[in-house]
Amino acid sequence: MCARGRARHFARRKSHSGCFGEDIAKAICWNLSTKDRLEWTSELLEGYHAYLHANSPEDCQVTLDNVRKAYDMFMPVAMVTLLFKVVAMKDKEDIEPIIDRAKGLIQNVYTMTKLLEK
C-alpha cells in the first residue's frame, strides 16, 4: 500500500471533527517512516486538500497553503503525542519502528524551528 493509502486508512480511525491540521499531521507523522514522510508529505497534503475541497460546501475557502500551514503548525503536536505513545509502548517487542519515527520527527521539528527563528 502506498503512503497515501496508509495515511488515509489511519485518518479514518483516529481523526476527529474540528481540526484538520492536527488530524493530517498525526496521520502523516505517526504512520510514515522519516524517509516516507519526507518523500510523500507534499503529495499527501495536495491529495488531502483536493479531498477536502471536493467534500466541503462551496463557500469553504480552505487553500492548499492553509493545509500546508496547518500541517506545519501541528507537526510539533504530533511529535509530542507520538512520544507519549513511545513511552506507553516501551515494553513492546515491535517498538523500534515507532522509536525511529519519533527520532526522525524530533530532528525535523528541531530543524524546522531553527529555520523559522532566522
TrEMBL record:
It comes from the Eukaryota. It comes from Haemonchus contortus. This is Protein Y11D7A.8. Pfam families: DUF1679. The lineage of its organism: Eukaryota, Metazoa, Ecdysozoa, Nematoda, Chromadorea. InterPro entries: Dhs-27, Oxido-Kinase-like_Enzymes.
